[in-house]
């Protein structure tokens, strides 16, 4: 199953991706985390490992990919990056970092001042995910960049389920409505997770979201916040995350 995690900046996408990755691994699944955030660098740290390599690097870097895109798109030709379907075991080793058995694959990062937009990374994320065949024992978690630009790029096309993370802000509520509408257009299933909850905000936040399906509610946990502030690996086990795994598997 390929599950894309998305939502507003800072709502907890990377945190929840890592907690889910560890929980699915404990259940015996083979887990691949796809880091589709072209800016943030923190997910390797959350998984407890320095990261090396990326899919973009494997393909020769951004300039090389842009060259292939310019060769194909203006002439209406298909961009041929993958000659055959990939399973997780087909992903080249130089794209992957092993984090205690969880495989992490960054799509590619913005590296230099003035290097231009991140569209090639969006194209690559979309094509990689459409080309990747997840087996029954596989869970692929895609940690996306903040906002809804990936919907504009059609990255969702290669995913089975979208999980929208909502923190207790009105901006996040508004974005959830937009994500819901875009997912319907993209014909993807979308479910929502409320994050950083305490008793005071839980009812109010859920009350703002009557028209979407909420499948989990996660508490505000000081030990999560402190671990990320200190640059430590996330080693927190939450019953709500185990329940979220079950809820996703049941859908
Ligand atoms: N349930 C939680 N309890 C406490 N703190 C949390 C929780 N979830 C996330 N955080 C904190 O919120 C901050 C943002 O989390 P995270 O980096 O996962 O968000 P993100 O959505 O991936 O952000 P970005 O859009 O920048 O990629 C971090 O400091 C993290 O520790
Ligand atoms: Mg993040």
Automatic annotation (TrEMBL):
Keywords: ATP-binding, Nucleotide-binding
GO biological process entries: negative regulation of cell division
GO cellular component, as recorded: cytoplasmic side of plasma membrane; cytosol
Residues in CobQ/CobB/MinD/ParA nucleotide binding domain copies: 5-232
SUPFAM superfamilies: P-loop containing nucleoside triphosphate hydrolases (SSF52540)
A GO term for molecular function: ATP hydrolysis activity
Record-linked InterPro entries: CobQ/CobB/MinD/ParA_Nub-bd_dom (IPR002586), CooC (IPR014433), P-loop_NTPase (IPR027417), ParA/MinD_ATPase (IPR050625)
PANTHER family found in the cross-reference section: AAA+ ATPASE DOMAIN-CONTAINING PROTEIN, SEPTUM SITE-DETERMINING PROTEIN MIND HOMOLOG, CHLOROPLASTIC-RELATED
Stated name of the protein: ATP-binding protein
